[in-house]
Amino acid sequence: MLVSCPEGRSLSHDTQPKLERREALQVRGVVQGVGFRPFVYRLAAEEGLSGFIGNDTDGVTIEIEGPKERVESFGKRLRSEAPPLSRIDSVAARVIAPTGERGFRIVASEVHGQVSTGIPADAATCADCLRELLDPTDRRYRYPFLNCTNCGPRFTITRRIPYDRPQTSMAGFKMCPACQAEYDDPANRRFHAQPNACPVCGPRVWMVRAEGAELSSLDPVAECIERLLAGEIMAIKGIGGFHLGVDATNEAAVLRLRERKHRYGKPLAVMVRDLAAAREICDLTDEEEALLVTPARPIVLAHGREDCGIAPSVAPGIPWLGVFLPYAPLQHLLFSDSRLKALVMTSANLSEEPIAIDNDEARTRLGMIADAFLMHDREILQRCDDSVMAVVDGAPQLIRRARGFVPLGLPLPGKIEGKGSPPLLAVGGHLKSVFTLARGKFAYQSQHLGDLENITGLDFFRESLAHLMRTFEIEPEIVVHDLHPGYLSTSWAKEWAAERGVRLIAVQHHHAHIAACMAEHGLEGPVIGLSLDGTGYGIGGRIWGGEVLIAHLDRFERFAHLDYAPMPGGESAIREPWRMALGALRAAGFDIESPDVLALLGASAQDAHVLRRMIDRGLNAPMTSSLGRLFDAVAAVVLGRRTVDYEAQAAIELEGIAAGEPDDDDPDEDRYALELRAGDWSRREAAILGTAPLWRGLLDDLNASVSKPRIAARFHAAVVDGFVRAAVLARETTGVGQVAMSGGCLHNRRLVRLLRTRLEAQGFELYRHRQVSPGDGGLSYGQAVVGAAVVRGEIG
Ligand SMILES: [Zn+2]
Ligand SMILES: [Zn+2]
Ligand SMILES: [Zn+2]
């Protein structure tokens, strides 16, 4: 159906140009809901071209007619000047017969066929909207829901595509004439801005006390600010869910939040007014500053400044602070009061449960945590936490991929032209759960879903899966899961596949990590895969995590691994690193009942005795080759940390104390070493990286009172040296020269920096994650890639 633009908006040309050319363009990528149609309309006007543009399920269709050089100029500018939130994946152009059409039109959306265009991700308030928000003469002055085609909520308010107002939670708000006029005007910044609203016609905010009654405040935002300044805990409804907000400079208030939320130790994110305020609390690099102001507005882990006024219990024990900038108008309004310097803004939930989104749900679940609620009546349809990123070795790296990134598509590599993957679901891991839906040449990762250990986590998984399946119209014919039989995601996948009679494919954990990295870079393999990770289920039932793989997309072989060490007590060795230390020392041949070792770990003779018996008898002491667990063990010995409050805390602290140390590249210095013992590769026997000499050097240094930061730095260098030598051996043996790195240990900046330097010095071509997390947040993407490759291999 064609719909003409309002009268007077059509463009007309006085003279009939001589050499008319007409092209039909099919643009694919993120081109809906990002101001693409008004952009094209403007472009056509500037070039004096006729034709039309319309959204379809594949992206946008454009037909353009006019002088040849103008049409060509249009094609170039289409790519080079595309709106900031758009992402053009491809433009297919073909020349068709001119029709003599006059003027340029925008046509209504067509809804048919298979959906392959994305819903855009949520985007932070743009500079134009922010100016209006703070301009007393503007009709949207201090209106918390203003937005335009260049900014505002998208994914979190959308039911299904195409992304049009009736498909969003703005459907219930009828636009007033002023808003409607903007919406209908192709020259307006708000042309087809689906969440367009104003104080007359749009959503509103109000305050509710924890005990129940609505507070009849004239200015709910001002009241919220006063309460924050008084040290109260506010539940503040945002874009992807509620935040719990508290004055970040008020130590007592921050402690109270931690107690009520049952979150001890794990760092809290801090929101500040703007870049200048962020510089006051963090030492920011140029790359970090650039990340802070991207439309995704992630939390950025940056080096915190001493004595910057942030309460000590915001991020205890580590040198980094998670900092981010306001991305919703309501948040900008909170900071419009200059008395408010910095707010802890943490996902509103108990411990690791999903973030609360619904007003009633928030009051039920957060009633014991928040003193009052700042609510609004624009429904959040998808829970979506803040994304977390860090600049690692000069490049941005995702740690948690959620708001601002989801549901942007990721590539699925494949050599068969025109054909991609059948509809497929990959369910991910266990903690930091994220699933992936894939079809054709694209994979769509869900938002970060949190831990699947509790029932609410699993509910969130189901809810989000149903939503994304509906959104992208993907009905999986294949379900891919981890090999671990104990993961909730594995048993869920088996049940779900059985119910639907679809095929199951199991993928080894560390292969999935490497495949994710390969797919991001379009690599088919073979590559040397360095999978440096916490724990993942290996082939044959042992727990892997310090792996050198020779990987293709659909298969892999294990070339080398860190030597096994027992985890006495299984999972409890993760929560209590001193157990892991005893296991690792025992495996390296030390007498763990000696007084020296006991003193180091603050362990009793009784404890050590019990653990030694567990280890020697192999009772509840599974063997692991995990590098993450070696970090834990070393952290327990060096820092004396017996227990942790959150996963990898000890390892993060170990990296933290080494942060000020120079990179340990002095060949004259006595370094710790991992001992590389080659296997017989003709019989596919893996090489082993033994830890005994590393531990000997480390304990000698401790006895010689070498500083702990130096010891931590030497340990990092030893790990890097060991894995680089293993990679060199792998290249000598197999001839493979590309290295893909993945796994949770790559959150460690020092490790990544040293690995990159050393591997490049050895002449390797190195690949790291750019679009997904190297940790288990990226796992399901890798599973989808392997699953699709397995199926492709069968088709031939
Ligand atoms: Zn805007
Ligand atoms: Zn309005
Ligand atoms: Zn992993």
Task: List the topology elements.
Elements: E1 20-30, H1 36-47, E2 50-56, E3 59-67, H2 68-80, E4 87-96, E5 104-107, H3 127-133, H4 177-184, E6 205-209, E7 214-215, H5 220-229, E8 234-237, E9 242-247, H6 251-261, E10 270-272, H7 275-281, E11 282-283, H8 286-292, E12 299-304, E13 320-324, H9 329-334, E14 342-347, H10 359-366, E15 372-376, E16 388-392, E17 395-400, E18 409-411, E19 421-426, E20 436-440, E21 442-445, H11 455-472, E22 478-482, H12 488-500, E23 503-507, H13 509-520, E24 527-537, E25 543-551, E26 556-562, E27 565-566, H14 572-575, H15 577-587, H16 595-601, H17 605-617, E28 623-624, H18 627-639, H19 649-658, E29 675-677, E30 687-690, H20 692-703, H21 708-734, E31 738-742, H22 749-761, E32 765-767, H23 779-795
Parallel strand pairs: 2-5, 8-15, 10-13, 12-16, 19-22, 22-23, 24-31, 26-30, 31-32
Antiparallel strand pairs: 1-3, 1-4, 2-3, 6-7, 6-15, 8-9, 9-14, 10-14, 11-12, 12-13, 16-17, 18-21, 19-20, 20-21, 24-25, 25-26, 27-28, 29-30
Bound molecules: zinc ion (ZN) (3 copies).
Features:
796 residues, 21% strand, binds zinc ion, disordered N terminus, 33% helix, alpha/beta, 32 strands
Structural write-up:
By secondary structure, this protein is an alpha/beta fold. Helix content is 33%, strand content 21%. The protein contains 23 helices and 32 strands. Strands 6, 7, 8, 9, 10, 11, 12, 13, 14, 15, 16 and 17 form a twelve-stranded mixed beta sheet that branches. It has a seven-stranded mixed beta sheet with strand order 29-30-26-25-24-31-32, sandwiched between helices. The protein has a six-stranded mixed beta sheet with strand order 18-21-20-19-22-23, sandwiched between helices. Strand 2 and strand 3 form a beta hairpin. The longest helix is centred in the last third of the chain and has 27 residues. The chain is globular, with a radius of gyration of 28 Å. The structure holds zinc ion (3 copies). One zinc ion binds next to helix 3.
